[in-house]
Design a protein that fits this description.
The complex is a heterodimer of chains A (151) and B (735). Chain A is an alpha+beta fold. Chain B folds into three domains: 164 residues, 2-Layer Sandwich (Aldehyde Oxidoreductase, domain 4); 162 residues, Aldehyde Oxidoreductase, domain 4; 271 residues, Aldehyde oxidase/xanthine dehydrogenase, molybdopterin binding domain (Aldehyde Oxidoreductase, domain 4). Chain B has a seven-stranded mixed beta sheet, with helices on both faces. A five-stranded mixed beta sheet of chain B has the order 12-20-19-18-13. In chain B, a hairpin with a 5-residue loop joins strand 18 and strand 19. Classes of the chains: A alpha+beta (151), B alpha+beta (735).
Chain lengths: 151, 735
């Protein structure tokens, strides 16, 4: 039985090792952040951090991340305090429907952890594998740059 | 007003004209001013607004949140007119048992129809509450002031809304007479109020339908046909039933679904069903390339929507023509459609849905189930952005149907990515032909536009035959006849009548009542292709006339608000001081959406690489006038989003299909604009306080596509009339 360390807590999930991480997180651990979008690592809506790296949970099996530290959107807020990215996305009203926002924030978290003061070009490049159909990309880029300034 | 007119006609017909006049006078005196928006259909105040316990106020609306921020905008107008803090509001929207039926949340109608109604209803409620306070406190209403639901007099008497309303006080009809506040007394309208739905969306709190997990919920997937009209001939149900976790397999004709305890088990079983199912494929031969000829060779319904002859047209006037084409394009929601169905012990089927049209889709589902419409209860929950009629309604029907097989268990159905790409009803492919006769100065004496299109209006509309499941059953429901829409909103021919002042002006809609691919309402309907064509053609004519495209448009345009947005967009980009450089171009376009909603103008600067055919958009500037602005940042967000989506359509998107089915099945085979490709965009609003809300959600789709075409022409001297402007197409056009 795989043990998953998610948002700082280690939990059993009663699923086969080859279960996509996305379903274990959403259905077994009842987390809302990661979203099903394409099931093929094309859109980024399901992104979570595994040991700080943004991965597509729809194509990552539970067995490959056992024991690693998994962070979802919910896990970014600590001690009742929102992550700088979460605050910045609110400040910039950086979305319309918000379905893709989970993945965008998670990928941006990895970027800011590695490159605390990215250029606008670096932000766009980092987010290029994430699709937003509402057309809120520029707001999201502004939000990431704001988080870098204020974070 | 309509009621009076029809009564007069009716009575005149029976010879009781004199009596009719008397009745009309009495009726209009009783009716007072016309009620705004959807208040006309639902005049009772308590249908919209309730003063609840504990200092709360509940707003009930039929329009739903699609990510466009409508709940926040409606909350702003309500809190203002009712004089309460916006935090006191709870909003129920899109629940067919609780809210007024306001039709579909579509067509940029939510501000004009819903927010206008809510604004008036809130003012009416405030006036009633003020009257109740005056009676209770024995103070004249003129001497009372209201602050956050507390009404008080100068000498310290006070009463709150929650003390004043004890029963049926708001169960009266709105009069239309309650005065609205002047803008300067409003606290929220016209100002940026943070959207109510955003905090949950950045933290992962439950806000999406996807995040509902009712007790006992199970997961299902539906086997969709490989191609339109394919018939399921063989499916070994017992093999699927034996797969791990499977609870039920349902088959009815060509409709099949599997229900499992776990979502991953449902997905596995669904994949196996796809492998073993055998199908009869219909003989259909149209493809994305042949569809334009197909459109122009079908039996058509000819609709002559404008016939204005220029009797002074000289026979020798030069004639200019052009043909434009728009392929099928997707809504392309990032989250595939989803619904949760539950058949309860009372025989009521409850469906949690992100449908734009909960009432009419509920009625269609009732027909599908063979149940009375009172037996279907639809509840709206937020989903992924839809941009029109996507798979939301079909998956709601899937969930309702599968829920019948497992009473008492909520059945969650989410489409797979491929299902959404292949089965959503696309924005219809169109051919638009324009023809102008011009004078010696190149000015337009006569204008003609012909368009060919299948339907843009195949929403459920209460009919099971409009649902995929309905058409797949053993005893299928027939697809209802295809519909277009007349004035003022039109559908295929939305914005086909240009907003310019031409002496001669003819517009013919060649409506094709059959389908090459499934099509229905996609953001802006026919307006995207029609405005693309009209505004491209205006540019072509300006070029022929050797007149600046801005001046040329202004020469043919009287409408002051149209001139204002056009001039503003031009000023924003620095139109008059632009420098001509090779491979570098500027383009402009303008339209008033539907002829009745926002005025919108877009200006754009691009470069075109002749070697690769690659278009790079350097910046986009946009001016929009949607009347009085309630949520400035919300409007900008919508306009910006529309620009990005329209750039994506115009640069990249075309659904590929052939006899074996749709070939655009994922984001690799149907690419959309990415972060790196989104240009800087600036939107400025022309606010018109005191004028009606016009709606803005679809206003920038058309002008954006045309401004791009015009900028590419300016950069290269080559006119591209076929969407999308892929590098291969641009390169081929440049030679």
């Amino acid at each position: 039985m795989p043990m998953l360390k998610v948002n700082g807590r280690t939990q059993d999930v009663r699923v086969p090792d080859d279960t996509p991480l996305l379903y274990a997180l959403r259905n077994d651990l009842k987390l809302n952040g990661p979203k099903y979008g394409c099931g093929a690592a094309q859109c980024g809506a399901c992104t979570v951090l595994v040991d700080g790296q943004a991965v597509r949970s729809c194509v990552t099996t539970v067995g490959t991340v056992t024991g690693q530290s998994i962070t979802t959107l919910e896990g970014l807020s600590t001690g009742g305090k929102m992550d700088a990215l979460q605050r910045a996305f609110m400040e910039e009203q950086a979305m319309q429907c918000g379905y893709c926002v989970n993945g965008i924030i998670m990928r941006a978290r990895q970027l800011l952890d590695q490159t605390p003061k990215p250029t606008e070009g670096e932000v766009r490049l980092a987010l290029d594998g994430h699709l937003c159909r509402c057309g809120a990309q520029n707001r999201m880029v502004r939000a990431v740059l704001r988080a870098a300034q204020e974070g | 007003m309509t009621i009076e007119t029809s009564r007069r006609h009716f009575l005149a017909g029976t010879g009781a004209l004199a009596l009719g006049f008397t009745l009309d006078v009495d009726a209009s005196a009783q009716q007072g001013p016309a009620l705004p928006g959807d208040l006309r259909q639902h005049p009772k105040i308590s249908s919209w607004l309730r003063i609840e316990a504990n200092g709360r106020v509940r707003l009930l609306i039929g329009k739903v949140e699609l990510g466009q921020g409508i709940l926040t905008a409606v909350a702003q107008v309500c809190a203002d007119e009712l004089d309460i803090d916006i935090k006191r509001l709870d909003i129920t929207s899109g629940d067919t048992q609780l809210v007024p039926d306001e039709g579909a949340t579509a067509g940029s109608f939510s501000m004009p129809n819903c927010a206008s109604a809510v604004r008036q209803v809130s003012a009416e409620a405030r006036q009633i509450l003020l009257g109740l306070a005056a009676a209770k406190l024995n103070v004249d209403t003129a001497k009372l002031v209201i602050q956050d639901g507390t009404i008080s007099s100068a000498d310290g008497k006070r009463a709150t809304y929650w003390e004043l309303v004890s029963g049926r006080e708001l169960e009266v009809e709105a009069t239309g007479k309650a005065p609205l506040k002047p803008r300067e007394s409003r606290r929220y309208s016209g100002k940026d109020v943070p959207r109510l739905d955003i905090p949950a969306k950045v933290t992962g709190e439950r806000i999406f339908l996807h995040d509902l997990r009712p007790q006992g919920m199970v997961h299902a997937r539906v086997l969709r046909q490989p191609a339109y009209d394919a018939k399921l001939t063989e499916l070994n149900l017992s093999e699927i039933e034996k797969l791990p976790g499977v609870l039920k397999v349902v088959r009815n004709g060509s409709f099949a679904g599997v229900i499992a305890e776990r979502e991953d088990d449902a997905i596995h079983a669904h994949a196996r069903m796809q492998q073993i199912a055998k199908w009869d494929l219909p003989a259909k031969s149209e493809t994305q390339d042949t569809v334009y000829d197909w459109l122009q060779s079908q039996p058509e319904r000819l609709l002559k929507i404008k016939e204005q002859t220029n009797s002074a047209l000289p026979a020798e006037a030069l004639s200019v023509e052009a043909t434009y084409r728009r392929p099928y394009q997707m809504h392309g929601s990032i989250g595939p459609s989803i619904a949760i169905g539950l058949l309860d012990a009372q025989g009521i089927t409850h469906v949690d849905t992100h449908s734009q049209s909960v009432f009419e889709t509920g009625q269609a589902i009732a027909e599908l189930l063979g149940a009375d419409k009172s037996k279907v209860h639809m509840r709206h929950e937020q989903g992924s952005g839809c941009y029109g009629h996507n798979g939301a309604d079909d998956v709601a029907a899937d969930a309702a149907l599968l829920a019948q097989a497992l009473p008492g268990r909520p059945v969650r159905v989410q489409w797979m990515r491929q299902d959404e790409h292949k089965w959503e009803p696309y924005g219809a492919a169109m051919v638009v032909k324009t023809k102008a006769r011009v004078d010696n100065n190149g000015d337009i004496l006569d204008w003609r536009l012909d368009l060919w299109s299948t339907s843009h209006l195949a929403r459920p509309s209460g009919k099971a035959g409009n649902l995929l499941a309905g058409r797949a059953l053993e005893k299928p429901f027939d697809m209802p006849p295809a519909v277009n829409n007349g004035p003022p909103n039109y559908a295929a021919d939305r914005n086909a009548i240009a907003g310019y002042d031409f002496a001669g002006h003819t517009v013919h809609t060649h409506f094709i009542p059959t389908y090459a691919a499934r099509s229905s309402s996609t953001r802006a309907l026919g307006a995207y292709a029609n405005i693309f064509s009209i505004e491209s053609f205006m540019d072509e004519l300006a070029h022929r006339a050797k007149v600046d495209p801005l001046d040329y448009r202004l020469r043919h345009l009287k409408d002051e608000r149209a001139r204002a947005v056009l001039q503003k967009a031009a000023d924003m980009i620095g139109w008059k001081s632009r420098q001509k450089r090779p491979g570098h171009g500027f383009g402009l376009a303008m339209a008033r959406y539907k002829g009745t909603a926002s005025w919108n103008a877009v200006a754009m600067e691009v470069t075109v690489d002749r070697n690769s055919g690659n278009i790079r958009i350097l910046r986009v500037l946009c001016a929009n006038d949607c009347g009085e602005v309630v949520a400035p940042d919300g409007v900008k967000n919508q306009i910006e989003g529309g620009i990005v989506q329209s750039l994506s359509w115009t640069l990249k998107e075309a659904v590929r299909f052939d006899a074996s089915g749709v070939k655009s099945v994922d984001w690799i085979s149907y690419p959309i604009l990415t972060f790196s490709e989104v240009p800087p965009i600036t939107v400025e609003l022309i606010d018109r306080p005191g004028t009606p809300f016009l709606g803005a959600g679809e206003a920038s789709q058309g002008p954006t596509g045309a401004a791009l075409a015009n900028a590419v022409f300016d950069a290269t001297g080559v006119r591209i009339r076929d969407i999308p402007f892929t590098p291969a197409r641009v390169k081929a056009a440049l030679g």
